[in-house]
Amino acid sequence: MEFRKTALTCAFATLFAVSGVAGAQSGGGQEGGAPPPEQQGAMPGADVDLSEGTIDDFVDAFVEVQKVNEDFAQRLEDATDAEEAQALHQEAQEEMVQAVEDTGMNAEEYNEVAMALQNDPELLDQVVQMAEERQ
Questions:
Q1: Which residue in 42, 41, 44, 24 sits closest to 32, CA to CA?
Q2: Which of 52, 69, 72, 110 sits at 20 to 30 Å (Cα–Cα) from 84?
Q3: What is the spatial distance between Cα 18 and Cα 31, in angstroms, rounded to a whole number?
Q4: Are 100 and 8 in contact (CB under 8 A)?
């Protein structure tokens, strides 16, 4: 059980970094994934839609993000220099954002659900189980 939560948390952290990339790609984001000024100071997970449909979309997105993460893990380990590793990391992040968007969510929504799940261990356990069933 602890291993599953650790893997899920690592995947969340991976996409958290992506939100800055997604925002920069859309032209209106802030570097580093900082929340817009109107959201700064808000409680993490506040006002997040955790309906069955959103959770279902999140699980689909999470499974796809994991596939991208696994695909790039070995390639990153085999990188011969920092420049190559940075390029691969950027490519992986872009593919993760696309995988999330292909499920109907965006990176910001995905990250909001991920943070809310970290504050709800029971729902997190359900999400982990759902993700394992879909892999």
A1: 24
A2: 110
A3: 10
A4: no
Q: At what angle do helices 52-77 and 2-26 cross, to 10 degrees?
A: 90
Q: pLDDT tens, 45-88? A: 457 889 999 999 999 999 998 898 888 888 888 888 999 989 99
Tokens of 29: 């984001």
DSSP collapsed to 3 states, 83-130: HHHHHHHHHHHHHHHHHHHHCCCCHHHHHHHHHHHHCCHHHHHHHHHH
Q: Which pair of structure tokens corresponds to residue 47?
A: 């006002």
CB 62 within 8 A of CB 113: no
